[in-house]
Amino acid sequence: MINGSCLCGGVKFEFKRASGPMEICHCNRCRKKSGSSILPTLTVRVEDFTLLQGKELVKRYTAPILYSDPAYQSYFCKHCGSPVPPLVDNVECIEIPAGLLDNDPNKRPDKHIFVEFVPPWDTISDELPQYKIRDLVRERQNQELPENFTLRTHYD
Ligand SMILES: [Zn+2]
Ligand SMILES: [Zn+2]
Questions:
Q1: In this structure, are residues 42 and 98 in contact, taking their beta carbons and an 8 Å threshold?
Q2: Residue 5, by phi and psi: left (phi above 0), alpha (psi -120 to 50) or beta?
Q3: Separation of CA 147 and ligand 2 centre (Å)
Q4: To bridge 4 with a disulfide, which of 37, 100, 120, 130 should be the other Cys (CB 3.0-4.6 Å)?
């Protein structure tokens, strides 16, 4: 079992295995959620995930929609402020902030995503593939962004 918890230890969870990619997100929303330069997340199947304790501590913030549904959401512990895994069951997989883990998930980061958001004070210093929003839309939604597409942040 792989275990994780929030800063205060009120929220605890476990999962059998990580099923999907471990991605390092540089988007401005993930940076604000984590308070750090990046937010590495691990994809886990909902059926492999168990919340052990702290359901009553979990709050959700839904950000304004920038482009289209679904809205960006942040689940966090209302006692200590740590991000926590999303408590949803109508999806196949969830993304878990890797900094919450207390042991080795036996996965390693495989790519950087939303790299156009890397701030001037940060540097990517490994050889992993780097995906921009255009690459992600192409790969995940099998669509092409229009030529005149412009990046937005929640400040716009
Ligand atoms: Zn907490
Ligand atoms: Zn992100």
A1: yes
A2: beta
A3: 22
A4: 100
153: in domain: no
Distance 58 CA to ligand 1 centre (A): 9
Structural domain includes residue 44: yes
Largest CA distance in the chain: 47
Distance in angstroms (rounded) separating the CA atoms of residues 121 and 96: 26
Q: Residue 76 above 80 pLDDT?
A: yes
To which residue do tokens 């501590």 refer? 57
Whole-number pLDDT of residue 149: 85
CA–CA dist 97, 126 (Å, integer) = 20
Whether residue 97 lies inside any domain: the answer is yes
**6's tokens:** 């929030």
Q: Do residues 37 and 127 make contact, with C-beta atoms less than 8 angstroms apart?
A: no
Residue 107 lies in a domain: yes
CATH number for the domain that contains residue 101: 2.170.150.70
Q: Which ligand is nearest to the CA of 8?
A: 1
Mean pLDDT of the chain, nearest integer: 93
